[in-house]
Write a structure and sequence with these properties.
The complex is a heterodimer of chains A (347) and B (173).
Chain A: H1 6-56, H2 61-99, H3 102-121, H4 129-147, H5 150-180, H6 184-226, H7 231-241, H8 248-264, H9 270-292, H10 301-343
Helix pairs in contact in A: 1-2, 1-5, 6-7, 6-8, 6-9, 6-10, 7-8, 8-9
Chain B: H1 4-11, H2 17-24, H3 34-43, E1 45-49, E2 54-56, E3 64-70, E4 73-77, E5 84-89, E6 94-95, E7 109-112, E8 116-122, H4 123-132, H5 134-172
Antiparallel strand pairs in B: 1-8, 2-7, 3-6, 3-8, 4-5, 4-7
The chains are: A mainly alpha (347), B alpha+beta (173).
């Protein structure tokens, strides 16, 4: 393996910074268009192996694309059709319980205990309830506010579907055409890097999605065993937030505790819930992730925490949700590019 | 954007029957039927090289094999300026097939003797073929293994003959 010279390393670093700046600029200028393309790319990336397999057994590419396309979107629609009403109803029920004051009672219990302790210490009285109520009602109105953008969502979904179809059908031809434009002396290197990026990205995306799905299922099952009301909502949230490493179990636990306190009115299920999510976290680390996410595409915890903080700082809660997958994707592309350059000696 | 190769590839109609004929004569693909050859054709990369341009150089990591579609390719060894030509390949002949099995350094240079068009068949595409169409993939790999085995047998035979000549020379000394 050829070791890179200092100049090459510096040039690569400058290129990396330049790409970051360009990426940042493009995100600001055409964020939604890019996001449509990226979502379509991810879906087509996940479906492409099946279409390739169909093509391999003699099914024309167009027909294979239509078959996989219809199957995938039917499956997604079926899931949305069956799961969404359940989650929506549960969310409404939870919101109702909170608004009728059960949570207020629970918070007031905590407040009374803390104030008693503070009085003993001679400190001022602590008013927690109004503050927490504001936080919760703001969060809930945010959740419902998202639903109001239905028209925008329909257009967005339509564009994603449209782009996915053509990426699936013509993706390989487009890729081949783009590769044909690469100068001869960089051709083999480019081909090798593209293949490795595709492999790693596929492994990473399939891994995190499968991991989130498994954790969602296990969380739902665990909450059902413990007897937490609205366990489907808790499991769904834990699974979704598990796309952000370290965030799934704490979010699930917090939601489960709030729901159980609001519904039952006591803190008795708190310890079992916390223990269950600690166990889930361990199962995720030692059983699920080693089976779903390839070791080569896992990230250092420090990078993960930094990505979550940066994502939250710039794009809020959605930024936190997508920062780690985005950094994961970028990490794969950059490391494959770096190793590709190390391995090759251009003519 | 005015990249002629890119636009030619995007807008080009289906490749002519002659390409399938070229592939049919390549030993690795000779047992394949028409639809299998078309599957192979879809994953090949057509590249054009000017006279004197290197396709690859000795010591570089290899990624796959090339088939000469049109033109002539010289296989040479040695540093630039002191190269020794070991063979000249013409239409339908292929080279670099060892790299399909392992990303080893290339053992020779390949340089276009005239303006040449080659078809590249690369390891990532072969691996993908093995995943998506195992029957076809295995058939290609088996042919490849047979060709390499025949070459090994030939080398062993040559080695044996050389050893016998060496023994004779030592005895006559």
């Amino acid at each position: 393996m050829n070791e890179l010279s200092l100049t090459t390393k510096i040039l690569l670093f400058i290129l990396f910074l330049l790409l970051l700046v360009i990426g940042w600029y493009l995100l600001n200028v055409a964020g939604s268009i890019i996001s449509i393309f990226l979502v379509a790319l991810v879906i087509s990336f996940l479906l492409a192996p099946s279409v390739d397999t169909l093509e391999g057994i003699g099914v024309p590419r167009l027909l294979g694309t239509i078959v996989m396309f219809v199957l995938f979107f039917s499956l997604v629609s079926a899931i949305l059709y069956t799961v969404t009403p359940i989650i929506y109803e549960e969310a409404i029920r939870v919101q109702h319980k909170i608004s009728v004051g059960a949570l207020r009672n629970a918070i007031q219990q905590v407040e009374a205990t803390v104030n008693e302790q503070l009085r003993i210490l001679g400190a001022v009285e602590w008013k927690l309830a109004p503050y927490l109520e504001n936080v919760f009602s703001a969060a809930l109105s945010n959740v419902l506010g998202v639903a109001s953008g239905v028209v925008y969502s329909v257009i967005y979904v339509f564009m994603v579907v449209f782009a996915t179809f053509f990426l699936l059908k013509d993706g390989r031809r487009i890729k081949k055409s783009l590769i044909s434009a690469v100068p001869n002396r960089f051709f083999e290197m480019t081909l090798s890097i593209i293949h490795k990026i595709e492999w790693s990205l596929g492994a990473y995306l399939r891994g995190i999605l499968l991991d989130a799905f498994v954790i969602g299922l296990l969380s739902t099952f665990a909450m059902w065993l413990i007897g937490v009301p609205n366990f489907v909502l808790v499991g769904f949230a834990a699974g979704m937030f598990n796309l952000v490493p370290y965030l799934g179990p704490p979010t699930g636990a917090l939601l489960a505790i709030i729901i159980s306190v609001v519904s039952i009115g006591t803190w008795e299920k708190t310890i079992p819930i916390i223990l269950a999510f600690i166990a889930l976290r361990l199962v995720d680390d030692f059983v699920v992730q080693p089976m779903t996410i390839s070791k080569s595409v896992r990230m250092h915890p420090l990078v993960v925490i930094f990505a979550i903080l940066a994502g939250g700082q710039f794009f809020g809660i959605l930024g936190m949700l997508f920062a780690v997958p985005a950094v994961g994707v970028f990490n794969v592309i950059f490391s494959e590019f770096y190793h590709g350059i190390q391995r090759y000696r251009p003519i | 954007m005015s990249n002629p190769i890119l636009w030619r590839n995007l807008l080009r109609p289906k490749k002519a029957e002659s390409l399938l004929n070229v592939l049919r004569n390549v030993p690795i693909f000779e047992d394949l039927n028409r639809s299998e050859l078309k599957s192979i054709e879809r994953i090949l990369h057509r590249r054009s090289y000017r006279r004197g341009e290197y396709i690859f150089r000795e010591g570089e990591t290899g990624l796959g094999m090339y088939i000469v579609e049109e033109g002539a390719v010289a296989i040479t060894v040695g540093e630039p300026g002191h190269e020794k030509e070991i063979s000249l390949l013409r239409n339908g002949e292929f080279f670099g097939e060892m790299a399909l099995l392992h990303e080893d350094p290339r053992s020779a240079n390949a340089v276009a003797r005239v303006d040449t068009v080659v078809l590249g068949f690369f390891q990532p595409d072969l691996l993908q073929l093995l995943e998506t169409n195992p029957r076809l993939g295995v058939s290609v790999v088996m042919r490849l293994a047979r060709i390499i085995a025949e070459r090994l047998q030939h080398l062993l035979h040559e080695n044996k003959q050389l050893q016998e000549r060496l023994d004779e020379l030592e005895r006559s000394r």
